Q: What sequence folds into this?
């Protein structure tokens, strides 16, 4: 009887560890469990984060322009598309300015707080809705860099 009780207790503990580790995935697969997972996480001082699946995100369009009103300021316009059937966290963006031989001149990582305007920062907790776009416009000081091209890459930092 004691061994059976201990085996059951061990199975419950293992189930709890699995639920803790995979809480985000569980909330995506069974959205009705999100509220319960968030209540448990409040007690455990953790959070149920939005999913981060970069293979289901894409940069649909982007362009980089100089600002005609200010010297050394460039404007990055981009559209990030969430192809997932669930909301996702806003990704970080790596902008690399390149010279005429395509060698990096300047590299900068833009976190969501850097590229979302004040009105859209309130949406940060909700992420990018399923199948929708996030349009961004960022003003950056390029300094004295002599760049002729750029690369834009999205990723999720660890």
A:
């Amino acid at each position: 009887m004691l061994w059976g009780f201990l085996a059951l207790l061990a199975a419950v503990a293992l189930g709890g560890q699995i639920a803790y580790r995979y809480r985000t995935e569980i909330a995506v697969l069974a959205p009705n469990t999100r509220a319960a997972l968030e209540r448990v996480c409040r007690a455990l001082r953790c959070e149920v984060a939005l999913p981060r699946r970069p293979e289901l995100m894409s940069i649909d369009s982007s362009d980089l322009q100089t600002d005609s009103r200010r010297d050394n300021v460039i404007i990055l316009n981009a559209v990030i598309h969430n192809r997932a059937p669930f909301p996702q966290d806003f990704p970080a963006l790596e902008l690399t300015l390149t010279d005429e031989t395509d060698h990096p001149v300047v590299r900068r990582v833009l976190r969501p707080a850097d590229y979302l305007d004040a009105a859209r920062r309130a949406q940060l907790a909700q992420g990018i809705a399923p199948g929708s776009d996030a349009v961004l416009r960022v003003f950056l000081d390029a300094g004295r860099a002599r760049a002729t091209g750029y690369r834009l890459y999205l990723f999720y930092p660890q």
